[in-house]
Amino acid sequence: MKNEAKRVVTAFLTAVQNGDNATLAALLHPSVSWNQPGENQISGIKNSNTEVFQMVGKMFELSANTLKLTDITSIGANGSKVSCVLRWIASKPNGSTMEVDNIDVYTVENGQIVKAEIFSADLEKENQFWV
Predict the structure, then answer these.
(1) What is the CATH number of the domain that holds 15?
(2) Residues 6+ positions from 9 with CB-CB distance below 8 Å
(3) Which is nearest to 117 in space by CA: 66, 76, 68, 81?
(4) Given 46, 58, 74, 92, which is the most exposed site by the fewest CB atoms within 10 A?
(5) Would you place residue 67 in the very low, low, confident or very high pLDDT band (cuts 50, 70, 90)?
(6) Considering the entire predicted model, what is its pTM?
């Protein structure tokens, strides 16, 4: 189906914004490979949707549940790959804040995300925030 990968990623990002965990779980392949950049508590390669959800849970814990996807600036597709520019914000009770753009590249197969490569526009800021 034409634009299937873009449709899947758009639905995934909408579910992220709405906190729709059932849709997120349905769109992430059980063996998804997720590469989160940096040198901090959430960095590294996750090899399942369970590990991805654990990482996201840690992000919400560290940000006192303030992490939010505020903007989806651009989405482009090339076959099974979809890239997008995303704006994230978060804050901590100690007053530390983060506002960062990420470029995410998703690979979609059979209606599910099988791979995610995350690129940060300000990795130093993310490393400082996610301690």
Answers:
(1) 3.10.450.50
(2) 75, 77, 82, 84, 106, 108, 113
(3) 81
(4) 74
(5) very high
(6) 0.94
